[in-house]
Design goal:
The chain has 248 residues and is an alpha+beta fold. It has a single domain, classed as Alpha-Beta Complex (Lambda Exonuclease, Chain A). It has a five-stranded mixed sheet with strand order 3-6-8-9-10, sandwiched between helices. A three-stranded antiparallel sheet has the order 2-4-5, with helices on one face. Strands 1-7 form a two-stranded parallel sheet. Helix 2 crosses helix 5.
């Protein structure tokens, strides 16, 4: 992150290096947008709920890609898509950022692809307020084949909807944008989707249940990795648990 930002419902943690001890610690005791679809038993890029439970129980996150920016996966399109979006929406400044954690529910975390702040914000007046998120989705297939609806609609794949709502809930935002790109025919569609309170309640409920199950599993001796005796949750020292042991 190159400038000071403020989110209505989250605090900035930092630019944590993927795979570092700090990053693994955050992953082991919180839920990211990329994980909530698996928790909801959707097909989230091949990750199942049980896979996620097992990895977190031993203090391990999802194995990183060997080279996530290799041509064909679409990662290399993000700067270009961000530039095009900024041109089409001059009311926003498109900003890169880092790790954010919910103020009210620190077991919710996110790392938005980009965030949007009002154009012309005076840095002397304080941190720039984040008003929306900007997420990129790329595919080698057609967008129709992947379940993406017409440009400008709110019809997106359910797993992506889970991701988007968790992102908005973590940051405390009313809406955000998704840009979907197809490498098959070079088509781009943009969606602006608002906060869905009823859906978010279902996601939070599933997230709490997942963390309770994770806590029970990590307290069991069989859940501990033989070489990481400290990987399991220590109930008395878990900052995300309240005095009654419940995730709020």
């Amino acid at each position: 992150m190159t400038r000071q930002l403020a989110a209505a419902g989250a605090v900035f943690v930092g630019d944590l290096e993927q795979g570092s001890a700090d990053e693994r610690a955050w992953r082991s005791r919180s839920i990211a947008p990329s994980e909530i679809a698996a928790i909801m038993a959707r097909d989230s890029e091949g990750q199942t709920r049980e896979d996620l439970l097992r990895r977190k129980a031993v203090g391990a996150g999802r194995p990183p890609m060997t080279n996530p920016h290799q041509p064909g996966l679409g990662w290399e399109k993000q700067p270009e898509l961000a530039t095009v979006f900024g041109t089409q929406h001059p009311e926003y400044e498109v900003v890169t950022t880092g790790y954010w954690v919910s103020i009210d529910r620190p077991w919710q975390r996110c790392w938005p692809h980009r965030v949007l702040v009002p154009t012309g914000h005076n840095a002397a007046s304080g941190p720039a307020p984040i008003v929306a998120t900007l997420t990129f989705r790329t595919t080698r297939d057609t967008l129709n084949a992947k379940g993406w609806g017409p440009d400008g609609s709110e019809q997106i794949p359910l797993a992506r909807y889970d991701h988007h709502q968790w992102l908005l809930d973590t940051c405390g935002l009313a809406s955000g944008y998704i840009v979907a790109y197809s490498g098959h025919d070079d088509e781009t569609r943009t969606y602006r989707i608002g906060c869905d309170d009823e859906h978010i309640i279902r996601l939070r409920t599933a997230g709490r249940e997942f963390l309770r199950e994770l806590a029970a599993r990590t307290r069991a001796p069989s859940a501990r990795h033989p070489n990481t005796s400290g990987a399991a949750h220590d109930r008395d020292h878990d900052p995300h648990r309240h005095g009654d042991g419940a995730y709020q």
